[in-house]
C-alpha cells in the first residue's frame, strides 16, 4: 500500500518534519515555514537549541556550548544568523566583542585576535617579525575566500537552477571559491610560512573552532572564520546564546509552524524505499512529504557502536558507510559552569581564552582548555557582583564509560579541579571564590543533547581534500534529508545555519515554493 496514494487528503500530512531543534534544524524549519510550508519540529528535550541552548540555575543563565558567535553582523551574505532571524521577523540584540580570542600558548606565546584586523596582524607580526610577508599573504588568501563567499547568496549548491543564477550574478566569485574547495588550511599556510611555531599557531587557530589541526581543516571554512571575525565581528546575543533558538521558535510559530518538546523520535518510517514519517518514543506517528534529520549522521544511519539508529539497518544506504570510513566523531567535552565573585576577573579581561601548555597536547584528552566569561559582555547573565566562567576541554566518552557511580563522581571532581587549576594560570585564586558549580561530562552531553557519544560533530579520520567529501543535505533515501554539522560545510553555528538554508532551499524547490529571485 502506498502511503501517499491513500493519504493525499490527510490534513495531518506535514510538508516537512524536522527531527531535532538545533540551529540547523530550526533554520530549515523557519525558512520553510516562512515560504508557506506546513512544518513540524520534534525535539526530545524541554528547550530548543541543542548545544546552542541555555539553562538557568540560581539566577545564572549558562550557555550550553560555546559563546563565540559568528554570523551576527549586518552586511553581506555571510551573516546567516542575522538573515535567518530577519526572514521570520525576528532580531537578537547583540553586544560586540572587541576581540575573538586570547591565546595562551607554550613558551609564553600570547596572541590576542582583536576585532581590528590591522591590530591583529601587528600583534602577530611582533611575535614573528621574520614572517611578516608570509603572515600577510596567508591571511590575504583567507580574505579572498571570504570575499567570494560574501559576494553570493549562500543557498543549496545541490540546486542547478540556483547555481546558474548565482554564477550569472557573481561569476568571478564562483570561480574563485571553486578554486579553494579541494584545499585544507595547512596546504595554503605552508606556501607562505616556514616558521614551525607560527605553523603551530595556525594549527591552534583552526583547532579552536574546528577541533582539527590545519591539515584537516577545509580552507573554505577557515576563510570564513579568519576574516568574518574582523568583518562582521564576534557579536554576543544579549540574554545568552539560547536567545537565538528561542527567537527562531518564535518566528516558526509566527508563520504557523509547530514545535513539540519531549518528543524523542525513535524511528524514521520508510515505505517502498521512501521516508514517509517518524515515530516518537510514546508510539505516536507523524507523516510528512519530507523528513529532515538534525541528528548526527551516526544517530541517523548508524555505525559500529550505534544500537538504535533512526533509520532501520535494512534501509541504511551504502553511501553512509563510505562516509563513516572518512569521518569519525569529534571528542565531546568536559565542561564546568562556574559562578564566581566579580573581584577575581579584572575589568579589562578578554571574554574568550584558550590555554595550551604543550603543543604535543593539542589533540590529546583534555589537552586544550577553552574559557568563556560572557558576563564581561552581558552582566545580566549572573546575580549582582558575580561573573560566569564557562570552561571546557575535549574529552572522549571512552574515558567515562564503565565507571561505577562512585568512580564516576570522583573522576568528575578530579577533572574539574584540574580544569580549575588551568583557569588559575590566567585568573589566580578562582578556586577560593566559587559560589556555584556545574560539571558536565561526555555522558552528560550525550544524555541531554541526544548526540552520538556526546560528540560535537564529525572530523576527518584521514586527510581529505578540503570540503569535497562532505555530504550535502540530500540522502540516498527519497524524501529524507540531513541538516547540521554532519553536512556541508560542517561545524559551527554559522556553518549549520548555512546547512539549514541549503536544506530548506532544496526542499522548497521540490515543493515549488522558492521565490525566483535571489536574496538581496
Helix content: 25-40%
Largest sheet: 7 strands, mixed
| Total beta strands | 21
- Strand residues, percent: 15-25%
Distance between the termini: 45 Å
What general form does the structure show? globular
Q: In terms of structural class, how would the helical and strand content be classed?
A: alpha/beta
Number of helices: 16
Low-pLDDT ranges: 1-9
Adjacency order of strands in the biggest sheet: 7-6-16-17-18-15-19
Q: What's the alpha carbon Rg, rounded to whole Å? A: 22 Å
Oligomerization status of the protein chains? single chain
| Mean pLDDT, all residues | 91
Written account of the structure:
Helices cover 35% and strands 20% of the residues. It has helices at 3-6, 23-34, 80-86, 117-127, 132-149, 160-169, 171-180, 185-192, 196-210, 219-231, 242-254, 297-301, 318-326, 405-423, 442-449, 493-511; strands at 16-19, 39-42, 54-57, 60-63, 94-96, 99-105, 109-114, 235-237, 258-260, 265-271, 274-280, 285-287, 291-293, 327-329, 332-341, 352-355, 369-372, 386-395, 434-440, 458-460, 480-482. The protein has a seven-stranded mixed sheet. Strand 6 and strand 7 (109-114) form a beta hairpin. Helix 6 packs across helix 7 (171-180).
What is this entry, summarized?
The protein has 16 helices and 21 strands. Helix content is 35%, strand content 20%. Helix 2 (23-34) packs parallel to helix 11 (242-254), helix 5 crosses helix 7 and helix 8 packs antiparallel against helix 9 (196-210).
Amino acid at each position: 500500500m502506498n502511503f501517499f496514494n491513500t493519504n493525499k487528503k490527510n490534513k495531518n500530512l506535514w510538508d516537512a518534519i524536522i527531527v531535532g531543534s538545533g540551529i540547523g534544524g530550526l533554520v530549515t524549519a523557519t525558512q520553510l515555514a516562512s515560504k508557506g510550508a506546513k512544518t513540524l519540529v520534534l525535539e526530545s528535550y524541554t528547550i530548543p537549541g541543542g548545544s546552542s541552548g541555555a539553562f538557568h540555575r540560581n539566577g545564572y543563565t549558562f550557555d550550553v556550548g560555546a559563546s563565540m558567535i559568528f554570523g551576527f553582523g549586518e552586511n553581506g551574505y555571510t551573516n546567516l544568523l542575522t538573515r535567518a532571524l530577519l526572514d521570520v521577523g525576528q532580531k537578537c540584540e547583540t553586544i560586540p566583542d572587541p576581540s575573538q580570542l586570547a591565546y595562551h600558548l607554550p613558551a609564553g606565546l600570547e596572541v590576542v585576535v582583536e576585532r581590528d584586523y590591522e591590530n591583529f596582524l601587528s600583534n602577530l607580526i611582533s611575535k614573528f617579525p621574520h614572517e611578516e610577508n608570509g603572515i600577510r599573504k596567508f591571511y590575504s588568501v583567507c580574505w579572498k575566500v571570504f570575499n567570494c563567499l560574501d559576494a553570493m547568496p549562500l543557498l543549496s549548491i545541490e540546486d542547478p537552477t540556483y547555481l546558474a543564477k548565482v554564477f550569472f550574478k557573481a561569476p568571478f566569485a564562483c570561480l574563485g571559491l571553486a578554486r579553494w574547495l579541494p584545499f585544507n588550511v595547512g596546504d595554503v599556510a605552508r606556501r607562505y610560512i616556514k616558521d614551525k611555531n607560527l605553523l603551530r599557531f595556525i594549527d591552534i587557530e583552526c583547532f579552536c573552532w574546528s577541533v582539527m589541526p590545519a591539515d584537516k581543516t577545509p580552507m573554505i571554512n577557515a576563510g570564513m572564520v579568519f576574516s568574518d571575525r574582523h568583518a562582521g565581528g564576534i557579536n554576543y546575543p544579549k540574554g545568552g546564546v539560547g536567545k537565538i533558538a528561542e527567537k527562531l521558535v518564535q518566528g516558526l510559530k509566527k508563520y504557523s509552524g509547530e514545535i513539540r518538546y519531549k518528543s524523542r523520535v525513535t524511528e524514521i518510517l520508510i515505505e517502498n524505499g521512501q521516508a514517509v514519517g517518524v515515530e516518537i518514543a510514546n508510539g505516536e506517528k507523524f507523516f510528512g512529504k519530507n523528513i529532515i534529520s538534525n541528528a548526527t549522521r551516526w544517530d541517523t544511519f548508524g555505525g559500529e557502536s550505534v544500537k538504535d539508529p533512526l533509520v532501520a539497518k535494512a534501509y541504511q544506504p551504502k553511501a553512509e558507510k563510505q562516509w563513516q570510513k572518512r569521518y569519525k566523531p569529534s571528542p565531546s567535552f568536559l565542561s564546568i559552569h562556574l559562578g564566581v565573585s566579580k573581584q577575581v576577573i579584572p575589568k579589562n579581561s578578554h571574554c574568550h581564552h584558550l590555554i595550551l601548555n604543550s603543543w604535543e597536547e593539542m589533540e590529546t584528552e583534555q589537552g586544550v582548555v577553552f574559557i568563556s566569561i560572557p558576563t564581561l559582555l552581558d552582566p545580566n547573565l549572573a546575580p549582582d557582583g558575580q561573573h560566569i566562567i564557562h570552561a571546557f576541554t575535549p574529552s572522549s566518552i571512552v574515558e567515562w564509560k564503565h565507571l561505577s557511580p562512585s568512580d564516576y563522581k570522583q573522576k568528575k571532581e578530579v577533572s574539574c579541579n584540574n580544569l580549575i587549576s588551568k583557569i588559575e594560570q590566567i585568573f589566580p585564586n578562582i578556586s577560593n571564590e566559587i559560589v556555584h558549580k556545574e560539571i558536565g561530562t561526555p555522558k552528560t552531553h550525550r544524555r541531554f543533547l541526544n548526540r552520538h557519544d556526546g560528540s560535537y560533530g564529525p572530523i576527518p579520520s584521514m586527510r581529505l581534500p578540503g570540503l569535497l567529501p562532505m555530504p550535502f543535505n540530500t540522502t540516498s533515501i527519497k524524501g529524507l534529508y540531513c541538516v547540521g554539522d554532519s553536512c556541508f560545510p560542517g561545524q559551527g553555528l554559522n556553518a549549520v545555519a548555512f546547512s539549514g538554508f541549503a536544506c530548506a532551499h532544496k526542499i522548497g524547490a521540490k515543493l515549488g515554493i522558492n521565490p525566483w529571485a535571489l536574496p538581496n
